[in-house]
Amino acid sequence: MIRNVLSIAGSDPSGGAGIQADLKAFSARGVYGMAVLTALTAQNTQGVTGVHLVPPPFVADQIDAVFADVRVDAVKIGMIANAAIAEAVAAALARALTAATANGRSIPVVLDPVMIAKGGAALLVPGAVDVLTLRLLPLATLLTPNLPEAAALLHQPVARNRSEMAAQAEQLRALGPAAVLVKGGHLDSDDSPDVLAVADGLHWFEAQRVPTKNTHGTGCTLSSALAAELAKGASAREAVAVAKDYLAGAVAASGSLTVGSGHGPVQHFHALWKDGA
């Protein structure tokens, strides 16, 4: 059975991040993708120049419409933008998850706390951080912050080493998510380790840095691949291993694309497109 996965996130018209990256990652990982828009952005590989927010009640209407008709096997949450949208998403999702539980189903939720775009533009207003923490974190099966995002959620300094990464992963898991993956790409080191905090402890995933500027949408792509694997029944640890391997291939093949002059996108379909076909 092909699984159905819903993304709740913002749009990137240049196609490298946001909803567009999510749908590409879903397709590449063999699941059927659906999308609820929280925001429209004007952006390209060089940065974000504008954001237009979707009214919170209409965000909730989109979520309700999908769940009223379609079997949802996993949810990925990306750009939330502000507190009102976070509240609307949390309320609509809580209704849907409660109904699923009553019918004997469990729907995994991957929360990627998108706060800052690759070019530095803010994608989450400061006042929304606490609402996201209090309302959405308890709904999450897997939280996937990078180092600055983890620090912002905890109101702490950014982790500088593995020990601090591990401590923050465990602190975030104590706030409600079943699992937390803290991504170490911002560490000042030659490698890029990630740490997964789950009920049975910590698990490290090692990776070498790829010398490329084509990293637009890597967080969106990873979290979407994680949602796809969880929808198929993988454990958090299994999903992270598969999704990281997929993302590594997508980054390594990004040079086959010629999209923009800034931070280019990854090649989501690296395993499917051969010789440009």
From TrEMBL:
Top EC class for this record: transferase
Q: Which UniProt keywords apply?
A: ATP-binding, Kinase, Nucleotide-binding, Transferase
Cellular component per GO? cytosol
> For this protein, what is the EC number?
2.7.1.49
Output one GO MF annotation: hydroxymethylpyrimidine kinase activity
Its recorded name reads hydroxymethylpyrimidine kinase
* InterPro entries reported for this sequence: HMP/HMP-P_kinase_dom, PM/HMP-P_kinase-1, Ribokinase-like
Give a yes or no for keyword Transferase in this entry. yes
Top-level lineage group: Bacteria
Pathway participation: Cofactor biosynthesis; thiamine diphosphate biosynthesis
Q: Which PANTHER family match?
A: HYDROXYMETHYLPYRIMIDINE_PHOSPHOMETHYLPYRIMIDINE KINASE THI20-RELATED (PTHR20858:SF17), PHOSPHOMETHYLPYRIMIDINE KINASE (PTHR20858)
Annotated ranges, domain Pyridoxamine kinase/Phosphomethylpyrimidine kinase: 12-267
Record GO biological process = thiamine biosynthetic process; thiamine diphosphate biosynthetic process
Q: Which SUPFAM superfamilies match?
A: Ribokinase-like
